[in-house]
Amino acid sequence: MSDDCLFCAIAAGSIPAEKVLENDRLIAFRDIAPKAPTHVLVVPRLHVENVAELAAADASLLAEMAAAAQQIADKECGGEFRWIFNTGATAGQSVFHVHGHVLGGGELGWEPA
Ligand code: 5GP
Ligand code: ZN
Asked: Labelling 50: which of 5, 57, 80, 92 has CA 20 to 30 A away?
């Protein structure tokens, strides 16, 4: 838990979110500004800044996030999805608590830059 972290606060339940999955290690909730019919954020309870830090700190937790992403996509978009980790401000990261975006539910475009 890190003070002043939005996703730590959502994980702790002190800020509300529309949760779709939750266990003792991670949570998943709908993005407040969805970019696709399914747009869910998969967030470990562990506060680390980005995916490389998470892989170094607890690789099995990253694997659990991948399984959660697949589970969400199986339920909501036929098992097909895009999984994005924006890393750094220039790449679009605005919340510095690692999170995987699960996007799906339609024909996705591809214009990252
Ligand atoms: P990033 O830009 O760091 O890759 O992703 C952060 C995401 O968090 C954005 O897509 C943004 O819409 C979402 N977000 C920001 N604030 C909130 C919030 O209070 N609740 C929820 N559910 N999503 C949020
Ligand atoms: Zn945090």
From this structure: 80
